[in-house]
Amino acid sequence: MAAEIQEKRVISKEVANAQQEIWKFILGFTPTAVVKCAIELRIPDILENHETPITLADLASEIGCNQSSLYRIMRFLIHYKIFQEKPVSETSVVGYALTPLSRLLTRHGENSMADLVLLESTPVMLAPWQNLSAWVLDNKQLPFDAAHGTDLWGFTAGNPEHSKIFDAGMACDARVGVAAVIAGCPEVFEGLKTMVDVGGGDGTALRLIVEACPWIHGINFDLPHVVAAAPATRGVEHVGGSMFDYVPKADATYFMKVLHDWTDEDCIEILKKCREAIPQDTGKVIIVDNVIGQKEDHEYVGLMIDMVMIAHTTNGKERTLKEWSYLFHEAGFTRYTIKRLQTYHSVMEVYP
């Protein structure tokens, strides 16, 4: 009898824990929505520009909003460690201050991820998630196509405003990724005189690489409408075209989170174009991307991005090392190396 009672208590506790845990999924969108609100209200920037913790009254005055509404927003974000409360000088009055998380949400910070939050929370990027189950059932119409009548690339080409938001979001991840590569394995750029960033967007990644490695002449290669909006950068040449047609010749080609957007067959064709573009004896392809199963501490990021690939791309996916190796072999490359970074990225160097 006592054993039965104990078993029921254990089951009851498990059920109670599950009932609490399920709310993370029922209202899982809430943190993203409230963080987006904070960015749009410029709260991280206001706190960064304030030398001391700022009171609720002063913050509301700076924003031009109601104190009561703002208090509830800040209470929520403090719980999630986006902001923190600190004494104002040596008084008993409490004010708000940044945390390491909210320092990543300032609009113009060196490591800002604010534009990526704003991109992924747009109605355009959220709508495809409603079509996941339909895609799983028939595996025909892709979620993004079902939501918008075209794929992501066609949509951005036809909607300049969203294209601008998309490029800004991609530039966020590029800044973090390039910094990790330069800090973690700068030797990948040694000996290169020219390098093509294939699918380089507005040129953010290549600009940072050339600034750190000024001996490299960079070629930022992307679709014509993308490079047309790219800012002029010293040491970087912008070239418009399609990687399915050709890749400009250089000592090395560079991909940062580009190949994960495409099917195996597409990636093999792109890599073949790269093999034609680089010297067969000294050339290489540098790939900065996620490798599923390589880094346990970042595994959840890779798995979430894999779901993003379903929702937003034309059959893109995150890959295991075995799957990456298959692409390299089928494209005619003979060997590769892989190096892990402190971020979720890995660096693969692929040789003819």
UniProtKB/TrEMBL annotation:
Domain of life: Eukaryota
GO function terms (MF aspect): O-methyltransferase activity; protein dimerization activity
Span of the signal peptide: none
InterPro entries: COMT-like (IPR016461), COMT_C (IPR001077), COMT_dimerisation (IPR012967), SAM-dependent_MTases_sf (IPR029063), WH-like_DNA-bd_sf (IPR036388), WH_DNA-bd_sf (IPR036390)
GO biological process: methylation
Gene3D superfamilies reported in the protein's UniProt record: Vaccinia Virus protein VP39 (3.40.50.150), Winged helix-like DNA-binding domain superfamily/Winged helix DNA-binding domain (1.10.10.10)
O-methyltransferase dimerisation domain boundaries: 23-106
The keyword Methyltransferase is assigned to this record: yes
Keyword S-adenosyl-L-methionine among record annotations: yes
Span of domain O-methyltransferase C-terminal: 129-333
Catalytic residues in the record: 260
Keyword field: Methyltransferase, S-adenosyl-L-methionine, Transferase
Family membership noted in the UniProt record: Belongs to the class I-like SAM-binding methyltransferase superfamily. Cation-independent O-methyltransferase family. COMT subfamily.
Protein name, as recorded: O-methyltransferase
Native species: Centaurea solstitialis
